[in-house]
Design goal:
Elements: E1 3-15, E2 18-25, E3 38-43, E4 47-52, E5 55-57, E6 60-66, H1 70-76, E7 83-87, E8 100-106, H2 111-116, E9 123-129, H3 132-141, E10 149-152, E11 159-160, E12 176-181, H4 184-195, E13 201-205, E14 221-222, E15 225-226, H5 227-230, E16 233-235
Parallel strand pairs: 8-9, 8-12, 9-10, 10-11, 12-13
Antiparallel strand pairs: 1-2, 1-7, 2-6, 3-4, 3-7, 5-6, 13-16, 14-15
Length: 240
């Protein structure tokens, strides 16, 4: 795996434990990142982190992440001018060709959809958050997010409750493609519910399960697929 040194341009605390970092890669990628590809982000001396590209324009890339461990905590302390490592884009890219695309995201699982919104014009869907303020803050940075409904557990933004409370209310049909990203328990529940609905295709984006990024550790093995190589997008049937 090759890494590109990248200079941090900004690292903003969006809300609570959620951050958005942008960095300028100091050497051009061989190929530009496309959704839902991800990068292994190296925090020097600390950890490697699999993060979906949330934005990518020329040499500037962005990642939306939640502080959940030592690696992401260390990343949240990086400031303008610091240098991190960013791998070449990993995994397969996939852009739906149909006219009806539904995004279902939980928490930081919205990250790959931020880039998808640049490529899918008629997207709709639902984003589940615990605190509605997170949705308000991120929509200020990404106005296209307003095309999605929000379900907040604190009932301060959009629908009141969890994303899984409203999955059955989303209009889908045989021509609908559903893309899902978020905590694994949420993903499994959504896939289970979609199984009983006549939906065209349902996929899961699961880069968070990746560890080494090169297929050596086997941590991201699902069935006979390695998410770092064959994913990060796989059929919903792998999570039912």
């Amino acid at each position: 795996m090759s890494y590109v040194p990248a200079e941090v341009l900004s690292n903003d605390n969006v809300y609570g434990k959620y951050f958005f970092i942008t960095a300028r890669v100091l050497r051009s990628y061989r190929r530009p990142p496309l959704p839902p590809q991800f990068a292994m982000v190296w925090v020097p001396g600390v950890d490697l982190l699999p993060l979906s590209y949330a934005s990518a324009s020329e040499r500037v890339v962005g990642f939306f992440y939640k502080v959940v461990g030592e690696g992401t905590k260390a990343l949240s302390t990086r400031s303008k001018g610091d240098v991190i490592g960013v791998s070449e884009p990993l995994g397969r890219w996939y852009i739906p060709q149909g006219r009806d695309v539904v995004f279902l995201a939980g928490g930081a699982g919205i990250a790959p959809f931020l880039l998808y919104l640049e490529y899918v014009g008629n997207s709709r869907g639902l984003w589940g958050v615990r605190q509605g303020e997170l949705a308000t803050r991120l929509m200020e940075l990404f106005p296209k997010l307003k095309s999605l409904l929000v379900a907040s557990e604190d009932c301060t933004h959009g629908l009141c409750g969890k994303l899984t409370d409203y999955v059955s209310r989303i209009s889908v049909g045989k021509d609908t493609e559903v893309l899902i990203s978020g905590p694994i328990d949420m993903v499994r529940e959504v896939c289970r519910r979609l199984r009983n609905i006549k939906v065209g295709r349902a996929y899961v984006i699961a880069e968070s399960m990746v560890k080494c990024g090169v297929g050596a550790c086997g941590s991201c093995l699902i069935g006979n697929l390695l998410l770092c190589r064959d994913g990060p997008i796989v059929g919903c049937d792998h999570f039912e």
